[in-house]
Amino acid sequence: MSLFWRIFVLDAAGLIVAAALLLGPVTVSTPILPGEVLVVVAGLAALLTVNAVVLRLGLAPLGRLGRAMADADLLHPGARAVVSGPVETAELITTYNAMLDRLEAERAASAAGALSAQERERHRIARELHDEVGQTLTAVLLQLKRVANRAPQDLREELGQAQEATRSGLDEIRRIARRLRPGVLDELGLLSALRSLAGEFTTHGLTVRHDLRAGLPPLTEETELVLYRVAQEALTNTARHAGADRAELRLRPVTDGVELLVQDNGRGLGERAGEGAGIRGMRERALLIGATLTVSSRADGGGTDIRLRADAWTGGADTATPVGDR
């Protein structure tokens, strides 16, 4: 029975009983007797109680729907309100769930387009840095070397310093270009790219160990890129914010897919409110390939675990490559 008919029937029953009492032999004395007061009060209380129970039961699904709407997060898809209650309420909850399905699909499509455009822009900038800025600095370095060979002795030290500054700038340009577009991922494969990434983040004060299992299932190019970018962002957060001196990068096969795990022994997430742009970016990338990302601090407060589970390629239009050195 719908909520409308529940309330209507309850109110109609109360009015019918009241009319029957007025038309029946029951009378109310003037002044009213104590026994009559007791009967009237008891009837009114019973009617109000039944009305309150019906409304409570009928509106409870709306309360659950409100809490589900408040907790909804498109970066944590899949949570849906339970369809229950009267017909009107059930239809409203069903419509809300359908709206969430549509919003998640639209967000995934728009995020895919945005991240694809971002990767193209990264590739363009990396190519320009390498081909234009890098070549210009290389030419400047060679010119400085020729000038230093012909310069007086008292100027050679300053020219040597200029050469070192130019060489450092060239190395930094190349490092930025590699981080913008990991050429090793395209040329040698995911495992080699992750090994190179671990070596890149192994600096003074931070040691990154890697455990990259061979024999992983075939993955699409999009999945490989997401795994690499999540590992890159996780290690970047570790190096910048965690205050850790050790980190570990793991990639291993699991049922129907692979699991990437980045651990550190830093401060952990602590009591920081919300998630930063880095973690939100990792979640958006995970959604592109239907992967599951979990971020947690260990119970002893000894670091953060970032875990990404992605499905293996099972055939279809997308291209896939066996994970390993190419």
UniProtKB/TrEMBL annotation:
Q: Which Gene3D superfamilies match?
A: 1.20.5.1930, Histidine kinase-like ATPase, C-terminal domain
Q: Name one Pfam family in it.
A: HATPase_c
Q: Please state every residue range assigned to the domain named HAMP.
A: 56-108
> Does this UniProt record's set of keywords contain ATP-binding?
yes
Transmembrane stretches in the record are 38-59
Q: Which PROSITE patterns match?
A: HAMP
**From the Swiss-Prot or TrEMBL record, what is one GO molecular function term?**
protein histidine kinase activity
Q: Which reaction does it catalyse?
A: ATP + protein L-histidine = ADP + protein N-phospho-L-histidine
User: Can you say where in the cell this protein is located?
Assistant: Membrane
Group of enzyme by EC: transferase
Entry keyword annotation includes Translocase: no
- Which CDD domains does its entry note? HATPase_UhpB-NarQ-NarX-like (cd16917)
Enzyme Commission number(s) of this protein: 2.7.13.3
Matches recorded under InterPro entries: HAMP_dom, HATPase_C_sf, HATPase_dom, Sensor_HK_TwoCompSys, Sig_transdc_His_kin_sub3_dim/P
Question: What UniProt keywords are attached to this protein's entry?
Answer: ATP-binding, Kinase, Membrane, Nucleotide-binding, Phosphoprotein, Transferase, Transmembrane, Transmembrane helix, Two-component regulatory system
Can you name this protein? histidine kinase
The organism of origin for this protein: Streptomyces rishiriensis
